Amino acid sequence: MVKQQDLAIISWFPPKSHVLKWNVDGSSIGKPRLAGIGGVLHNHKALVLGFFSAPVGIKDSNEAELLDFTLFSSLYLDFLHIWTRCLSLMFRAMLTIWVMVLQNKVFKTL
Question: What's the pTM?
């Protein structure tokens, strides 16, 4: 049973418009004990875009926090790489369509 003194009020605010926000944490119950890490990715509408969690074995809370930050950094860089490639592909496709429109190729094929 949760005691009244164990409860805490926690506030969370979504990021500014068109910004993504990662919330990450790592913890253990005791030093050293079983530990875990996790994180959640939100957009400015508080929509969950992704999340992760994983056990990390027997660690103290400081090690769990460090592992969480390390994994988060790796995932974030992977996410940026994928996002950049998607934007690049979209830009190339739009540019190709505009070039075809300017050259009047699109209308000649219709």
Answer: 0.53
